[in-house]
Amino acid sequence: MERGYGPGDIMKVEEDSGRVGQIKDVVAAMSSQIASRNSIPVFLMGDFNAPSHLDWVSAHKNKNCGISSFQWPSSRVPTDAGLIDSFRKFHPDPVGVEGNTWSPINPYHDGDSGGFEPQDRIDFVYYAGNVQVTNSQTYWLGKPAAQPNHESNEWSSDHAAVLTSFRINSGSC
């Protein structure tokens, strides 16, 4: 987001992108699995292309385009439905461990010609049920070069990944 955007502008961009409707549809489709989480653990993971409300805190105001907090729907809808952000469960302090996944190769808007591109965690592993997070980290292979020098990167994505390990607690399955 560019500086000068306010929360209303950001929400409009989110709604126009289709992400708000998509995450609502996905979570609604999972509602019976989420309701049964005490019998069988449930997971939702992927590239959500939007940051987390758990990461946009006042200590990151300068990093987050001057905004102290924002209730990003892509993260708010799953957590409101009872899913838990595994990375934030393992690393509860968003200042101490940011966990950015966007983007090791896109530090600027428009390749290398634009302004600073806010770095955020936009890839997630959500869960619910009788499991315990034993580790969670961001991951990419090698040392990604930024655009326009990225063609030889070992890691083929413009995102880092979130890798979370779980322990299934006894009696959960």
Describe the structure in your own words.
- With about 170 residues, this protein is an alpha+beta fold.
- About 25% of the residues lie in helices and about 20% in strands.
- The chain has one domain (about 5-170).
- The protein has helices at about 5-15, 20-30, 30-35, 75-80, 85-90; strands at about 40-45, 85, 125-130, 130-140, 160-170.
- The protein has a three-stranded antiparallel beta sheet with strand order 1-3-2. A two-stranded antiparallel ribbon has the order 4-5.
- The model has no long low-confidence stretch (mean pLDDT about 90).
Which secondary structure elements does this structure contain, and how are they paired or packed?
Layout: H1 7-17, H2 19-29, H3 31-35, E1 42-47, H4 73-80, E2 84-85, H5 86-90, E3 123-128, E4 131-139, E5 161-168
Antiparallel strand pairs: 1-3, 2-3, 4-5
Helix pairs in contact: 2-4
List keywords for this structure.
two-stranded antiparallel sheet, single chain, alpha+beta, 23% helix
What portion of the residues fall into strands of 2 or more residues?
Answer: 15-25%
Structural class determined from secondary elements? alpha+beta
The pLDDT mean sits at: 91
Number of strands: 5
Shape: globular
Order of helices and strands: HHHEHEHEEE
Overall number of domains: 1
Radius of gyration: 17 Å
Distance between the termini: 43 Å
Largest sheet geometry: 3 strands, antiparallel
Strand order of the largest sheet: 1-3-2
- Unreliable sequence segments: none
Helix content: 10-25%
- Total of helices: 5
